[in-house]
Write a structure and sequence with these properties.
Layout (H helix, E strand, L loop, with lengths): L7 E6 L9 H18 L3 E4 L13 H10 L5 E8 L5 H14 L4 E6 L6 H8 L9 H12 L20 E5 L3 H9 L3 E3 L8 H11 L11 E9 L3 H20 L18 H10 L4 E3 L1 H15 L3 E5 L5 H16 L2
Parallel strand pairs: 1-2, 1-9, 2-3, 3-4, 4-5, 5-6, 6-7, 7-8, 7-9
Helix pairs in contact: 1-11, 3-5, 6-7, 10-11
Length: 334
């Protein structure tokens, strides 16, 4: 079994907006967290694309990635992910090709096949384009071709983009992208930080069907893990109530802005809602360093993944950064 020391630790950031702070504050905190991730030795720092959500400020993902790249020096930075149905493949290739040209060997492109928003906003993003999820495999292949060396008869050259060989990942919360990642020989990241139900099946499907490629010679799996690590289990459970309130807001169609922790959630949710939040956070690791260390070791024992990519919805920004400091300390524990 793989050990925590042998497992890559990464961060997935959604640029959370607090209910008492500005969006500017959130965006500057993104950079503060990225700089901490670089200092602490995290493998990669990814930003997720979402739209029309008042509590998530990473909608212009490529722009925000440029801000992070310009103010860090070694950290691998990428998307987790770009929601491909919202974009023309050529535009994505040009954006990430530009970033990769400016910051060589540091840029990664994770691709998802969902819109990352509601139906009305999806139509506003596409402006009449009839993209469907069925086109996702073809769009992925198109992007890969734009990052590769140009072919003699190639009519469209991504400039910048061509010959940058930006690493491409496929992301998913079901079986579709697992199968496609296996067929194309690409690394695969499962969104178990919010949709853990099919994690085991997707990983097995990916590994069983993986075909070695110019991109990867063996399967590589990353899994999303929500975290709240604090000095004690009791403090972590208190801090986690901010995350619970955020998911509750998502389920009810209410604000997703981070709210301050509360002593008890009993008066805020129904038993059915509590069960739904618990299912959403089935992979969450909440507690002291010792508690979370045991929990991560159990996840490794069960899923044997190559990498954990952590999310965190702690209200206090200092404690949020401290969460990732504690996680890296866990990795270095013998």
């Amino acid at each position: 079994m793989r050990s925590l020391q042998d497992t890559q630790f990464s961060i997935l950031e959604l640029a959370p907006v607090r209910d008492d702070k500005s969006i500017e504050f959130s965006l500057k905190h993104v950079l503060e967290l990225a700089q901490s991730a670089e200092r602490l030795g995290y493998s990669r720092f990814w930003l997720a694309e979402h739209h029309n959500m008042d509590g998530i400020a990473s909608s212009a993902t490529a722009v925000l990635l440029g801000y992070v790249l310009a103010n860090t020096s070694t950290l691998k930075v990428g998307s987790g992910g770009i929601m491909l149905p919202n974009h023309a493949p050529l535009v994505v290739a040009e954006q990430f090709g530009t970033l990769a040209t400016l910051y060589p060997q540091r840029v990664e492109l994770g691709l998802g096949r969902a819109p990352g928003t509601d139906q009305v906003t999806m139509r506003a993003l596409r402006r009449g384009r009839q993209e469907t999820e069925d086109q996702f495999p073809q769009d992925v292949l198109e992007i890969l071709s734009y990052f590769d060396d140009p072919q003699p008869a190639q009519k469209i050259i991504a400039t910048p983009g061509q010959s940058t060989h930006v690493p491409v990942w496929l992301l998913g919360s079901s079986l579709f992208s697992a199968q496609l990642a296996a067929r194309l020989g690409l690394p695969y990241s499962f969104a178990s930080h919010f949709a853990p139900r099919m994690l085991s099946h997707a990983i097995q499907l990916y590994r069983d069907n993986f075909q070695a490629s110019e991109y990867l010679d063996r399967p590589y799996v990353s899994m999303g893990v929500p975290t709240v690590v604090a000095e004690t289990d009791q403090e972590a459970q208190l801090l986690a109530t901010s995350a619970y309130q955020r998911v509750l807001g998502l389920m009810r169609g209410q604000s997703l802005k981070l709210k301050a922790p509360v002593e008890s959630m009993d008066h805020l949710w129904s038993p059915a809602e509590k069960m739904s939040v618990d299912n959403f956070y089935a992979m969450a690791q909440i507690g002291s360093q010792h508690t979370v260390k045991v929990g991560l070791e159990n996840l490794l024992k069960q899923y044997d993944v190559d990498e954990f990519i952590f999310t965190c919805d702690i209200y206090d920004t200092e404690k949020r950064i401290n969460n990732f400091e504690r996680l890296m300390a866990i990795k270095k524990m013998l």
